[in-house]
Amino acid sequence: MCALCTLCPLCEICFHPPLNTPEICYNTTIMNEKPQFVLPERNPTTHAVHRKQVWWQITLPLLLGCLVFALAFAGVIWAAAGASPEVTRWADISLIWLILPTLFFALLGLAVVVGLTILISKLLGVLPGYARLVQDSFKNIQAKALRVNNALVAPALKLKSWSAAARRARQVVSELLKPGQQQ
Questions:
Q1: Which of 44, 90, 95, 102 would you label with 35, given CA atoms 20 to 30 Å apart?
Q2: First-to-last CA distance in the chain?
Q3: Residue 38 has pLDDT above 70, yes or no
């Protein structure tokens, strides 16, 4: 190193290695890395409120529902264990509870069918008038398209008919002028 290394920007001894090598820059690995995003910690007060709400709104109702289900299950088993006429009563009650969801969804389907029937009957009262308007509009469009089509084709048809008439006239004249034919 030269004596003026801190003052001399052109010193070959000081700047011999590249500037980004570890010999000169001690911070190259840290400067080249991207900083990692770190999530902040949870707010402790809102987290405590959340935990309390989870207990009261999710865990406790779930435990109570499981307890009621287990008690009902135990009651059915206890009633069925004894040979009494109450077994048929419990079977009937169980059957009612099994049929109720099916009836509920069947009633929903029935309501949809009734609603569609009413809607279609209302539409049938109004729809024919609008259908007639649409039909008349399409007939008008068809008539205009036919007129335009006839107007576009008329010159070509006249030309074809004139050429066909000229051919036929030439044919008739050539037949009349053929030698050796008598009329």
A1: 44
A2: 135
A3: yes
> Rounded mean pLDDT of 27-49?
70
> In this structure, what token pair is assigned to residue 114?
């009734």
DSSP string, the chain: --TTTTT-TT-TTTTSS-TTSTTT-TTHHHHHSPPPP-PPPPPHHHHHHHHHHHIIIIIHHHHHHHHHHHHHHHHHHHHHHS-STHHHHHHHHHHHHHHHHHHHHHHHHHHHHHHHHHHHHHHHHHHHHHHHHHHHHHHHHHHHHHHHHHHHHHHHHHHHHHHHHHHHHHHHHHHHT-TT---
Q: For residue range 88-98, what is the model confidence (pLDDT) as tens digits?
A: 787 888 889 89
HEC readout, 38-55: CCCCCCHHHHHHHHHHHH
pLDDT of 1 > 50? The answer is: no
Over 90: is that where the pLDDT of 108 sits?
A: yes
φ/ψ region of 50 (left if φ > 0, alpha if ψ in -120 to 50, else beta) reads alpha
pLDDT tens by residue, 113-122: 999 999 988 8
